[in-house]
Design goal:
Layout: H1 5-11, E1 14-17, E2 23-26, E3 29-32, H2 38-46, E4 57-60, H3 77-93, E5 96-98, H4 108-114, E6 123-126, E7 140-143, H5 146-155, E8 157-160, E9 164-171, H6 180-191, E10 199-204, H7 206-209, H8 213-221, E11 230-232, H9 237-243, H10 252-262, E12 275-280, E13 287-289, E14 297-299, H11 314-324, E15 339-342, H12 344-347, H13 350-360, E16 370-373, H14 378-386, H15 389-395, E17 421-424, E18 439-442, H16 445-454, H17 460-468
Parallel strand pairs: 3-4, 3-6, 4-5, 6-7, 9-10, 9-12, 10-11, 15-16, 15-17, 17-18
Antiparallel strand pairs: 1-2, 2-8, 13-14
The chain binds 3-isopropylmalic acid (IPM) and iron/sulfur cluster.
Domain Aconitase/3-isopropylmalate dehydratase large subunit alpha/beta/alpha: 7-455
Keywords: 4Fe-4S, Amino-acid biosynthesis, Branched-chain amino acid biosynthesis, Iron, Iron-sulfur, Leucine biosynthesis, Lyase, Metal-binding
Pathway: Amino-acid biosynthesis; L-leucine biosynthesis; L-leucine from 3-methyl-2-oxobutanoate: step 2/4
C-alpha cells in the first residue's frame, strides 16, 4: 500500500496497537530542558521508576538562562532552581547535560540538529511545543506534556493516536527578500492558528526543496503555530550533507546502513493525504504580524485589515488591535519601533545572522532601537565570530549576547518593557509573551535588520536594492 513519508516513519515505530485507542509509539530521541523536566523527574521518583534509556535522552538549559555574564551565578532564584534541578537529575540518571557555560549549550531545537542527534526517520519528542523544528530532517518530532515526559523517561514510549495527514505544497520562485520565515508566516496567515489542528503536515514543492536546512527548520518550527501536531520535509542530499560528520551522526557502516533507510523516506506518488493545500511562492512578500497571534500577519507593504473584511471574531480582533495600539487601515511600514530581537529556535541560526548582517553592513543602529542579538547556541556564536559577522554588526553599533531563548519568552532577564514595540524573529506574539505589556511584531531577520537601522518598520527590499545598486 502506498504510504506518505509520515506513515513510513510512524508505522515503523509503533510497537503495539491498542484497539480503538492510541498507538504505543517508540521514541528514538528525547530532549529535555529545565522548564518541563523537573516535575517529570519528581513523578518518576515518586513511582520508584528509573530512566530506561539515558543514552537516548539529552538535556540542555535554555529558557531560564541569562544571555549576558553567563560565567556568573544565575541571580533569579526560580531560574537558578530550575537549572540546578536539570543538572542534578541529569547527573543522577547518567544523562548527557549541556548546562550553562558548556561548549555545546544552546536552545534545544538548535543544538539537537547541530550535534547530529536529530536524524531522518527518527521519532523525537521534548516537553516543548517547538520540537516540530526537527521535522526538517524527515523526522517525526513533536512536543509533549510533562506527564508524557515522565512516561518517555521511564518507558521510552508514549501513547499517541495517529494524527491526520496534510500536505502543503508551495511551488514557484520566492521573490527578492522573501525568506523561509515569510513563507511560514504567509501559510499561517492563510490557515489561521487553528487551520492545521489535528494534522501532521508534510511540506512539499520547490520552495522547500530549494531551502537550506536552516530555512526548513524555520518552517517546521512554526508548524505548531497553525495548530499542527508537527511538520516534516522529506530528506534529500542537503539533509545528508548537513548531518554528515556531526558529533553523534553515525559513521562508517552505520552511516551506509542508515543512508539505505533514509533514502526510502519520501511520500509514494499515489499516497493519499486527508487534506492537501497549494500555494504559489511568487505570491509571498516579506511578512509582518500586527496582532496578538501568529496568524495575524500581512505582507509588509499592506495595511491592517478591517474587522468587517475578516471572517468572524471581530470582538477579539478589535481587542487585539487595541492591545497593540494599532488601528484598522494602519500601514505597518513606518511604525516607530523600540526593540529588535534576533534569535530564538525559529531564527537564531547562522543563516539568520548572515541575513541580518547583509543589511546592517556599512550602516548604523538607529538611536531609538535597543537590539538584542542572541545566537541559538555556542556553535552559532562561534560561526558568527569566525565568519566575520561579529565585526560587521559591531561596526554597525550592535552587540552580541550569549546563547539562550532570551526575549522569545519572558522566563529570563530579557524582557521587553510594558508598552514597548518589538520587531522579533521569534514565533509567538501573544499578549505579554516577551514581557508583561510588551507588544510584538513577528518578522524575518531581514525585516528585523532593516528596522534596526532605520528605527521604524521597514521593508528590507528597499535597503537590499540600494545595497545591490
Ligand atoms: C516553556 C515551554 C514549555 C514552551 C513551549 O512548549 O513551547 C516554550 O518553549 C515556548 O516557546 O512557549
Ligand atoms: S526559543 Fe522560544 S520558542 Fe524556542 S524553545 Fe525557547 S522559548 Fe520556546
Amino acid at each position: 500500500m502506498s504510504k506518505t513519508l509520515f506513515d513510513k516513519v510512524w508505522d515503523s515505530h509503533v510497537i503495539r496497537k491498542i484497539e480503538d485507542g492510541p498507538d504505543v509509539f517508540f521514541i528514538d530521541r528525547h530532549f529535555i530542558h529545565e522548564v518541563t523536566s523537573p516535575v517529570a523527574f519528581l513523578g518518576l521518583k515518586s513511582r520508584n521508576n528509573s530512566v530506561l534509556y539515558p543514552q537516548r535522552t539529552f538535556a540542555t538549559a535554555d529558557h531560564n538562562t541569562p544571555t549576558i555574564n553567563q560565567h556568573l551565578p544565575v541571580e533569579d532564584p526560580l531560574s537558578a532552581n530550575q537549572l540546578k534541578a536539570l543538572e542534578e537529575n541529569a547527573a543522577e540518571w547518567g544523562i548527557s547535560h549541556w548546562g550553562l557555560g558548556h561548549q555545546k549549550n544552546g536552545i534545544v531545537h538548535v543544538v539537537g540538529p547541530e550535534n547530529g542527534i536529530t536524524l531522518p526517520g527518527a521519532t523525537i519528542v521534548c516537553g516543548d511545543s517547538h520540537t516540530s523544528t526537527h521535522g526538517a530532517f524527515g523526522a517525526i518530532a513533536f512536543g509533549i506534556g510533562t506527564s508524557e515526559v515522565e512516561m518517555v523517561l521511564s518507558t521510552q514510549c508514549i501513547m499517541q493516536p495517529k494524527p491526520k495527514k496534510m500536505r502543503i505544497n508551495v511551488n514557484g520562485a520566492l521573490g527578492f527578500g522573501v525568506t523561509p520565515k515569510d513563507v511560514a508566516l504567509y501559510i499561517i496567515s492563510k490557515l489561521t492558528t487553528s487551520g492545521a489542528t489535528g494534522y501532521f503536515v508534510e511540506y512539499a514543492g520547490d520552495v522547500f526543496r530549494n531551502m537550506t536546512m536552516e530555512g526548513r527548520m524555520t518552517v517546521c518550527n512554526l508548524s505548531i503555530e497553525m495548530g499542527a501536531r508537527g511538520g516534516m520535509i522529506a530528506p534529500d542530499e542537503k539533509t545528508y550533507e548537513y548531518i554528515k560528520g556531526r558529533a553523534l551522526t553515525p559513521t562508517g557502516d552505520a552511516w551506509d546502513k542508515a543512508m539505505e533507510y533514509w533514502q526510502t523516506l519520501s511520500t509514494d506518488d499515489d499516497a493519499v493525504f486527508d487534506k492537501e493545500l497549494n500555494f504559489n511562492g511568487a505570491d509571498i512578500e516579506p511578512m509582518i504580524t500586527y496582532g496578538t497571534n501568529p496568524g495575524m500577519g500581512i505582507g509588509i507593504s499592506n495595511i491592517i485589515p478591517n474587522a468587517e473584511d475578516l471572517e468572524g471574531g471581530s470582538a477579539t480582533y478589535k481587542k487585539s488591535l487595541s492591545y497593540m495600539n494599532f488601528l484598522e487601515g494602519d500601514s505597518m511600514i513606518g511604525k516607530p519601533v523600540d526593540f529588535v530581537f534576533l534569535g530564538s529556535c525559529t531564527n537564531g541560526r547562522i543563516e539568520d545572522f548572515r541575513a541580518f548582517a547583509s543589511i546592517v553592513k556599512g550602516k548604523k543602529k538607529a538611536q531609538n532601537i535597543t537590539a538584542w542579538l542572541v545566537p541559538g547556541s555556542h556553535e552559532v556564536e562561534a560561526a558568527i565570530k569566525n565568519e566575520g559577522i561579529l565585526d560587521i554588526i559591531t561596526e554597525a553599533g550592535f552587540t552580541l549576547r550569549e546563547p539562550g531563548c532570551s526575549a522569545c519568552l519572558a522566563m529570563n532577564d530579557d524582557k521587553i518593557p510594558a508598552g514597548k514595540l518589538a520587531v522579533s524573529t521569534s514565533n509567538r506574539n501573544f499578549e505579554g509573551r516577551q514581557g508583561p505589556g510588551s507588544r510584538t511584531l513577528l518578522a524575518s531577520p531581514l525585516v528585523a535588520a532593516a528596522t534596526a537601522v532605520t528605527g521604524v518598520v521597514t521593508d528590507p527590499r528597499t535597503l537590499l536594492e540600494k545595497a545591490i545598486a
